[in-house]
C-alpha cells in the first residue's frame, strides 16, 4: 500500500511484485480492491502490479464537482512519474477502460499493451448525459446505498450473487463505501467524454478486449465494436459473468490477461 501526492491530490495505490509493470484502473463506483485476484495472480508471476484508487474513490482525495476522463488519465501519468515508470501495460474496466483509452490518446508512447474490459468507446448520447446528471444528483441526495443495492444484480450476474456470495458482498461493499461526491463528479465528467472510435485504429500495441457474456451495461456488441477497430486485437467473451468478469470468473480473465502480457512484453517498446 502506498500514498503519493500528485496533481494536487493524494492517491492511494497498491504496488506489488517486481518486474515489468502492469497498471490496472478500476471502474465506477469501485476502488482498487476490485483488482485483488489480479494483484495476487500477477504479482506472483514476475510482474510489478500497480492498482491506484482514482481521485474521488477509495483512499484518494475526493474532489467534488466534475472530474473529466483526461483529469483521471493525467493523474495516472503523474503517479507513474512518481514511481519512475515510463512504459507500461495498462488496463481498465468499465469507466476504467474509458480512462485507459484517454490515457492512450494523451500518452501513446507510454503504452506497451492494452486491456479494455467491459467498456465501450462511443461518446455519450444526449439521453445518456441527462441520465448521468440525474444519477449524480441522486448520489448526492441519497448517498450510495440505494444506488448500490439497485445495481448489484447488473454488476454481478444474478446467478453469481447466489453462487459467489463473497464476490457479491465485496462488490456491494465497494459501491456502498464510495464517496458520493467523488462518484457524482466522475459521472458528470464521464457524460462529456469524447468518442474514441477514431483512436482505436491508431492503437499499434497488443490489445485485449474482454467482456462478460451476460454484461447488460456493456454488451458483447460493444466489445465487438472495439475489437473490429483495433488492429490485431484479441476478443475474449467470458461465459458465466456479467460486468465484472475479473471477479466473477478470475481464472478465465487471468488466463486472457496472461496472453496479453506475453505479447505486450515481447513487442518492441513504442518509439
Automatic annotation (TrEMBL):
Keywords, sorted A to Z: Hydrolase
A GO term, aspect molecular function: hydrolase activity
Highest taxon of the lineage: Bacteria
Gene3D superfamilies, per the entry: alpha/beta hydrolase
InterPro entries to which the protein is assigned, alphabetical: AB_hydrolase_1 (IPR000073), AB_hydrolase_fold (IPR029058), AB_hydrolase_sf (IPR050266), Epox_hydrolase-like (IPR000639)
Pfam families hit by this protein: Abhydrolase_1 (PF00561)
Domain AB hydrolase-1: 21-250
Protein's name according to its UniProt entry: Alpha/beta fold hydrolase
Top-level taxonomy: Bacteria, Bacillati, Actinomycetota, Actinomycetes, Streptosporangiales
